[in-house]
Write a structure and sequence with these properties.
The chain has about 110 residues and is of the alpha+beta class. The chain is built from 4 helices and 4 strands. The longest helix has 17 residues. A 4-stranded antiparallel beta sheet has the order 1-2-4-3. The protein has one domain: Gyrase A, domain 2, CATH 3.30.1360. The protein starts with 15 loop residues before the first helix and ends with a helix.
């Protein structure tokens, strides 16, 4: 059995500002809403090819540095939906990611 990945981000302090800037830029440009979903969050974005490509790149990068988070990116006719799931103990990092996109997580922490 493969052990669960550690709940830790592997980005360096030097890498973090650029990553957060890209996440914030996508959120500012296209984020429609955020909502809690079990142990995760659902983020809804405008549906366009540029946003989809930028989200796919963020998901790939975040999957590498925060391997404990699970990401699902789905395309719909009117929106692109990003679902992020966190294991027990990883919720705070997931909340930080939602906040980085500009999402309101106050109701998620309830």
């Amino acid at each position: 059995m493969t052990p669960d990945p550690p709940i830790a981000c592997t980005l360096t302090a030097a890498q973090m500002p650029a990553r957060l800037a890209e996440i914030r830029a996508v959120g500012d440009a296209a984020l429609r809403s955020t909502e809690a979903s079990g142990s995760g969050a659902v983020l809804r974005f405008d549906a366009d090819q540029q946003t989809r490509a930028r989200l796919a790149a963020i998901v790939a990068a975040e999957s590498a540095c925060c391997a404990f988070l699970e990401f699902d990116l789905e395309d719909g006719p009117a929106e692109t939906v990003l679902t992020v799931e966190a294991p027990n103990g990883g919720e705070e990092v997931m909340h930080q990611l939602v906040e980085a996109f500009g999402g309101d997580i106050a109701t998620m922490r309830g």
